[in-house]
Amino acid sequence: MAETTSSNTAPWVEQQPYLTSGFERTDESYLGAPKQYFQGQTYAGAAPESTQSIDQLRNLANQGSAVSSNTNTLFNNTIQGNYLNNNPYLDTTYNNAADAVRRNYQNITQPGTQAQFSNAGRYGSRWHDKQNATNQAELGSTLGNLANTVYGGNYNQERARQQQMMNAAQQQAQFETLNAERLGQVGAYQEGRDSLGIQESMNKWDYGQNEKQDQLDRYLARITGNYGGVSSTRSPSNNGSGFQGAIGGGLMGYAAGNALGGYGGYGAAAGAALGGLLG
Known about the structure:
Helix content: over 70%
Number of domains: 3
Largest sheet: 2 strands, antiparallel
Structural class: mainly alpha
Radius of gyration: 62 Å
Number of helices: 8
Order of helices and strands: EHHHHHHEHH
Distance between the termini: 17 Å
Strand content: 5-15%
Low-confidence stretches: 259-279
Strand order of the largest sheet: 1-2
């Protein structure tokens, strides 16, 4: 027959008043006091240097620098041919060179020709006139070549500069896209600053949405524990009925008598009697 045993455990007697007081204070702390979010700004404001830097970047992006503006002006004037034959010193350069050629003709070439024919007694002759015409033609050719060198050279040089500027202008155009990138950086920075304020507002909003649930969870966490209880166990009894014991013992004895072997039925009978005593 099974027996039921009950046991009752409880916290230490000296501890019980403190547990009761702790439960009461937990009830007041977690179920009666709402959470409060920090009332100040939770992110750092922009430093004056950052604000100044952003303003400068914005101005550069929108207006560009004086250097960039002058560079674009030079590029445009050169590519459009505004400097072709527009050198203010070009005429002076040619005139000075041409005057030197004329003086050489007047002071050296022509007097030498005159003296040569005069000494030969052929001054005013047909051959003299022909030589004078040749000298003048050479003077004209020299002045023409000089003009081609000065003006044509300047034209060719300026055309080469035009081509160089066209190639450089492509790089300058790519450089100008930096202004748009700067403006995008300013916008991204400002969006980042604005998002901090938006996130702060969201955090303040979310902070109290689950307040009641949070209070209850913290309250339950405080009162959870093993503070005693009642338990019971069932165990089998060692005292059986006499009849059952006799039957069981007889069977055991009979099996033991057979194990003794022989002696007719006396072995089994003796074993059964012994089993009855054990039962």
